[in-house]
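Example 5.3 — MFS transporter
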Amino acid sequence: MTDAPAAPGRFTWRFVTPVLIGPVLNPINTSMIAVALVPISHDLHVATSTVVWLVAGLYLASAIAQPTMGKLADVFGPKRVYLVGLVVVLVAGFLPNIWHDFSAVLISRILIGIGTSAAYPSAMSLIRDQSARLDRQTPPALLSGLSIASQTVAAVGPVLGGVLIEFFGWQSIFLVNIPLAAIALVTTIVWVPSDATRPQRPGPKPTLRDVDPIGIVLFAGALASLLVFLLDLKLSMLWLVGVTLVLVAALLWWSLRSRHPFIDLRMLRRNGALSRTYLRMLLIYFGAYTMMYGFSQWVQGSAGYSADQAGFIQLPTAVLAALTSITVAKNRRLRLPLVLSGLIPFFGGVLLIFLHAASPLVLLLVVAAIFGVPQGLASVSNQQALYRQAPGDQLGTASGLSRTAVYLGSILSSAAIGLAFPHAPTDAGLHGLGIAIAVIVGLAALLALVDPALRTRKDGSERVGGGLKSE
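Solution (predicted structure tokens):
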């Protein structure tokens, strides 16, 4: 089967379809599991402290694999990397349905994290390559569509997961990957231009040495040791902090001396706007994931709702996130949306402090709704900032690192939830999470407010990217 080139001069629906499908696989798997933790724990007879590794395993795999896949896409071509990732997702979707054991579920989650990590950085690179082929600016609606699709699916995930679990059991949330990955695989093969037609970049052609396996190993080791410590906060595990610091120091030393580092620290130091975008994403998504997982567990474990009811309680989050994403899709100004993406969940975190097991359902729905708007704002606006700020020849790696920032926020979220709910969800634990959310997302709002790269110029436009050339 041959690759069909896109119609000259425009982005066709054939190109856009596979580019939009693949990136939704990671967020839908990230969010559906929120309402499945309690059923899996009961069915497989594993403790809450153990089942949380289903979340953490995907976080860790994604945090490491996203920039790795982005780097591979930059070097070997995004279409090749995209297709390999989709095949991995297909295999992972079957595993828990043929092997009824917690180990199988955990392995599946890790494989899903690795496979889905190829989609987003590859899609961003495919879009920029197509813009160069067509010799036209990337349509803002396409970038927003990528963000809206992922955001909407992530928000709908708990609802979909709750319904599937109620009627077909928790294993069904893994089967969802199979048709989605299969459709993306076939349409990518048929409709996405070959990597052989990629526009030539200035300088020498990338080789295998540009992947920097030493940098990847150091990065993976530092993240893994940090995650294990955060999920088991004991004095006896404090040695892992030392391991993390040593590996981080080694990564910094290596990255500053390597010609083609996995993480280009020189670029990040020069590109302060991009570095601050990563930091904002970490802070904002700490709040989003703490709400998604912590609130969902509390609704089931303390307030007494079932998995499908817990999913529907978060329906206002899904609806408002989708509507907000569509509303700001064509907005080119980033400062106000980014400030609001931290300010609004600040008030949501404060409201969590006043909830208790007997709180009326309408209050739970209101709290869930408050977190929908900032999710839509953050998803669209941070992605636009990333696309403008990232160097063109490193867009895959930069996109992957942005997802790593998101998953670092998720990893910290898992640690916070573990501290708040050491044995079972409680009102006091939820109140502690509310305080944590308010403080962290408040910092994100302040960071966006004072960011010099987002300040408005005299002509009314915004300066984004710290002086870097944008698309």
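Remark. The two ends are 33 Å apart (CA to CA).
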